[in-house]
Amino acid sequence: MAELNILEAIRQAMDEELERDERVMVLGEDVGKKGGVFGATEGLWAKYGDKRVLDTPLSEGLIAGAAAGAALYGLRPVAEMQFADFVYPAFNQIVSEISRMRYRSNGAFGLPMVIRMPYGGGVHGALYHSQSNESYFTSTVGLKVVAPGTPADAKGLLKAAIRDPDPVMFFEHKKTYRLFKAEVPDGDEVLPIGRASIARAGKDLSIFCYGYMRFCALEAAEVLAREDGLEAEVVDLRTLRPLDVATVLGSVERTGKALVVHEANQFGGYGAEVAAVIAQDGFEHLDGPVTRLAGPEVPAVPFHHALEDWFMINPSKIVDAARALAAY
């Protein structure tokens, strides 16, 4: 085991995959000699050269389109959107072309490619560097969407994404990059896409989360146990599409109450789909309303630190929501 933070785990995964498979390549803005604005690709350009670690122009449409073309010709590109907020110029490439290639070709062509998406607030990035836009892509058939919350999951799921025969959107919450270190297994451990994990077992209510919200939910669960005697089960979804419905419903069956937590706006957010699955297929086990806790209805994360704190979901807000749900 090695003690790594999430950023180091992501870098290690790319390094190992570049070394393992000569078809793997990395491309994006400043990912080469600079090593990326967050340092995710630091050292890879020097080790593998500029034919496999490519700096691109400031053109997200080009990044996505070039990655798709490379994948069609047998490579396995890992494309970085410098910030998830910048992905919109590439939206047509991703949603209309990349997601549909296998379907439109009757299975003849797949696109084995990854698009890395640094997302989320709490880093004083303001409106254009703090967005959580995962729901745009979870609503798109043909894309897998992954959002890990631990170093081990980040490494194991990124390796799985790189090896997947179809396109994967890989969401990395920026606030978690250097937030903590945890053990990461040595060796070539690949985690299956599409499986949630029980981050903390409990019997009184279930908290469904992903990314940075896993960290917050675990802190909230400790407070609930210490101050209220409530044992919250924390379910880290890890993969948003496909959703691990069996694990979600199994948790609801054990606890009878469901709290779905995410950072993006509530209306139309990813939590709505999780809530709908629970309401439709887990109704007989519910002992209270399916509850969502999400970002407020403003266009984006404000810059001022007080307003940013107001916007962000934190352990205290999760504790309050869980207490209200437990009271039913």
Main CATH class of the largest domain: Alpha Beta
How much strand?
Answer: 15-25%
Nearest-angstrom radius of gyration?
19 Å
**Which regions are unreliable across 5 or more consecutive residues at pLDDT < 50?**
none
Secondary-structure element pattern, one letter each: EHEHEHEHHEHEHEEEEHEEHEHEHH
Question: What features would you highlight for this structure?
Answer:
328 residues; alpha/beta; Rossmann fold; 2 domains; seven-stranded mixed sheet; five-stranded mixed sheet; 37% helix
Give a quick precis of the structure.
It is built from twelve helices and 14 strands.
Describe the structure in your own words:
The chain has 328 residues and is of the alpha/beta class. It is globular. Helix content is 37%, strand content 20%. It has helices spanning 6-20, 44-48, 60-72, 91-97, 101-104, 134-138, 151-163, 212-228, 245-255, 270-281, 305-311, 315-326, and strands at 2-5, 24-28, 53-55, 76-80, 114-119, 144-146, 168-173, 181-184, 197-200, 205-209, 232-236, 239-241, 258-265, 291-295. The protein folds into two domains: 2-184, Thiamin diphosphate (ThDP)-binding fold, Pyr/PP domains (Rossmann fold, 3-Layer(aba) Sandwich), CATH 3.40.50.970; 197-326, 3-Layer(aba) Sandwich (Rossmann fold). The N and C termini lie far apart (43 Å). Helix 7 (151-163) links the parallel strand 6 (144-146) and strand 7. It has a seven-stranded mixed sheet with strand order 3-2-4-5-7-6-12, with helices on both faces. The mean pLDDT is 97. The protein is built from twelve helices and 14 strands.
